Amino acid sequence: MSSTQWSNRAQSLSSSARHSRLKRELVAYSFILPNFLGFAIFTLIPMVFSLVLAFMHWDGAGAITWAGLSNFADMLKDETFRISLINTLYYVAFTVPLTMAAALGLALLLNQPLRGRDFFRTTFFFPYVASLVAVAVVWNMIFHPAMGPVNQLLSALGVDKPPRWTASVDWAMPTVIMASVWKGMGYYMVLYLAALQGIPSYLYEAAEIDGANSWQRFRYITLPMLTPTTFFVSIMLTIASFKVFDLILVMTGGGPGRATNVLVVHTYNMAFKEFRYGYSSAIAMVLFVIVLVITIIQFRMERRWVNYM
Amino acid sequence: MHAAPQPRDHASQRARAIALKVLTYALLLAMTAVMLLPFLWMLSASLKLDKDVFRFPIEWIPAAPQWGNYALIWTRIPFLTFFANTAKLTVIITFLQLATSSFAAYAFAKLDFRGRDLLFLGYIASIAIPWQVYMVPQFIMMRRLDLVDTHMALILLQAFSAFGVFLLRQFFISIPNDLSDAARIDGLNEYGIYFRIMLPLSKPALATLTIFTFVGVWNDFMGPLIYLNTEAKKTIQLGLRLFIQQYSADYALIMAASLVSLVPVVILFLSFQRFFVEGIASTGIKG
């Protein structure tokens, strides 16, 4: 289109047409506004503020002063930070694959024509909606080192020194991980179940005609067809696991010692117990960067193993 | 031997199928036990005397059930106040989330305006960023606004959910545009289309968001932990923790209190279980 044609066209757009476009946009903005105002004030601004605060010193009462990179330098000297980082990675490294395996296993079992499928589905999903505090309490009582039914059973079975679970430095994290897998797997099972039910049956029929056995059908049809879900689940679970807080605070409080102190617990303690807001934000920023980098890596690897139909 | 390949023996094939079925049910029942036993143990323990809670082997059905435990917990701490506070927060936040999210989601799904895609990207990005990353600035902001130790702080922080907008937008997009186009020709404006066409068609999506929000707010622990100090303002999850701290040796009462705190969610979950599961399956999000 030549420039004269453009200007002709512009002139032909009457002012009333422009007016009605503006009106349409105003209507659209009016729909967004109530949510956006709240979202901007209580989410976006704190997000930006968090980034700024990471480079500041502030105890909440006195003046805010520029810290440069010193909050980050402090982390190198902070042993609790180092332990929390290692604990977080430990927690994520076990929780993510175990939850995925359990979720996929349950989904495969439930994907067969069975009686009582809805009952099982509801049961497995229930811990996910149960309150964390209630779940942590009962879990702690069942795994009570001295009196809990689990250790009484182990003793009765002749185990000489049953683990002291959350009271033991070595066993506290595995106990928290078990509780976390137990609580979360039903949710991811539902995602896998939906994906399994979306695999077209003709694929299996064709494979059967070609003589594929059940392992081969699983290996060459089910697993590849599930990769988009596996990809999605792995990202969601990784992000969720890095954020672990409630479970640990209620089950172990980060202890014994610092055995289950994770990054978010450390952030929380620094902010709300020691009032080192800048330092706390810097730790939060490290958490954010780790999650971001891992998510980017996962997206980069996506091409190598994820199949889209 | 060069016997011709035999057709598969039907009897052994059926035996294998049955064995597989038995194995499947055995695994499922074992998993059911793992998932449910903690709750059944909770129920059983809540009806015992403290001294019997840990007795081994477990007496699943107590000989003399202590129903009085369930009356006692209400007198030990102000559980009723905690329930009322939680119910108030849950209802207000759920209502605000549904209203503002569905309103915004309509524009993102059906209207055209400058900056729409960029803005939506911002919403999605915020879902992926851990809330804990900005919880401290939020707290500072609330302190500046003098809202610490008020329910208003929790309402303002939780009522405007990016997740809600995302979830409802996904659903609105699946509603054909022909419907709204026809309504526009008939002279209905956008607000009319939203109220008279979109909302009535979106009941499953609204139900899903309602359940998510209800369960999320009811079970929220960290929000109230950070913001609420006065006992009269605390919520059920904080109350439960308070109970555990104050009566740490009253095992049966702790179990009774825990069980009572689960009741509203259990009722909601069992009555809307279908929406819940389908809602997750269709949107996925919400770690």
Continuous helix count of chain A = 13
- Spell out the helices and strands of chain A N to C: HHEEHHHHHHHHHHH
> What order do the SSEs of chain B take from the amino end to the carboxyl end, as H and E?
HHHHHHHHHHHHH
Strand arrangement within the widest β-sheet of chain A reads 1-2
Unreliable residue runs of chain B:
none
* Rg of chain B: 26 Å
Kindly state the percentage of residues in helix of chain B: over 70%
Radius of gyration of chain A: 27 Å
The biggest beta sheet of chain A is recorded as: 2 strands, antiparallel
Q: Could you say which overall geometry of chain B the principal axes of the C-alpha atoms support?
A: flat
Give the termini separation of chain A.
Answer: 40 Å
Beta strands of chain B, count: 0
Q: Report strand % of chain A.
A: under 5%
Average residue-wise pLDDT of chain B? 86
**Low-confidence blocks of residues of chain A:** none
By DSSP (H or I, 4+ residues per run), the number of helices of chain B equals 13
Question: Explain this structure to me?
Answer:
The complex is a heterodimer of chains A (309) and B (287). Chain A contains 13 helices and two strands. Chain A has helices at 3-12, 15-53, 70-77, 79-110, 117-129, 132-142, 149-156, 172-197, 201-209, 214-242, 246-251, 263-272, 277-305; strands at residues 56-57, 65-66. Chain A has a two-stranded antiparallel sheet. In chain A, a hairpin with a 7-residue loop joins strand 1 and strand 2. Chain A is globular, with a radius of gyration of 27 Å. Chain B is 73% helix and 0% strand. With 287 residues, chain B is mostly helical. The model of chain B has no long low-confidence stretch (mean pLDDT 86). The radius of gyration of chain B is 26 Å and the shape is flat. Classes of the chains: A mainly alpha (309), B mainly alpha (287). Chains A and B meet through helix 2, helix 4, helix 5, helix 6 and helix 7 of A and helix 1, helix 3, helix 4, helix 5 and helix 9 of B.
